[in-house]
């Protein structure tokens, strides 16, 4: 079952890149999705995929809300933080995690470190100093 989800993810990416649903492109996409190497040592759990899909659904309105916040109240502070990869993630789920972080306007993944961390750049509102300044 999970192999089908990885295949579906690869096909979705292929169709988004090519923007062509012709029969020839579908055949090429299926062939490429099957030929690409897989990581057979780590298997994803269906619960992880469902959780990732839910996070995608939640990220869409969040992205719109953050975009409006940035327009109405400019964010002048920024920082870079290291975030840990969730345990037991397959490469497909790691890709979705990076996509979700980058999808929202306030954050972007700068680098994925092989030791299981993301380098994330964030913009935020500058906090006002205490004492009325």
Automatic annotation (TrEMBL):
InterPro entries: Cation_antiport_E. The chain crosses the membrane at residues 12-37, 49-72. Keywords: Membrane, Transmembrane, Transmembrane helix. GO terms for molecular function: monoatomic cation transmembrane transporter activity. One of its GO terms (cellular component) is membrane. The keyword tRNA-binding does not apply. Pfam families: MNHE. This is Cation:proton antiporter.
């Amino acid at each position: 079952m999970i192999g089908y989800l990885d295949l579906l993810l690869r096909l979705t990416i292929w169709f988004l890149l090519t923007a062509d649903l012709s029969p020839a492109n579908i055949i090429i996409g299926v062939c490429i999705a099957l030929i690409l190497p897989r990581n057979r040592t780590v298997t994803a759990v269906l619960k992880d995929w469902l959780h990732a899909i839910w996070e995608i659904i939640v990220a869409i309105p969040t992205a719109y809300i953050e975009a409006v916040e940035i327009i109405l109240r400019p964010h002048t502070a920024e920082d870079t933080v290291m975030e840990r990869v969730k345990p037991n993630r397959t490469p497909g789920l790691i890709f979705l995690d990076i996509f979700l972080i980058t999808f929202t306007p306030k954050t972007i993944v700068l680098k994925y470190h092989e030791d299981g961390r993301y380098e994330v750049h964030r913009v935020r509102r500058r906090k006002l100093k205490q004492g009325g300044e």
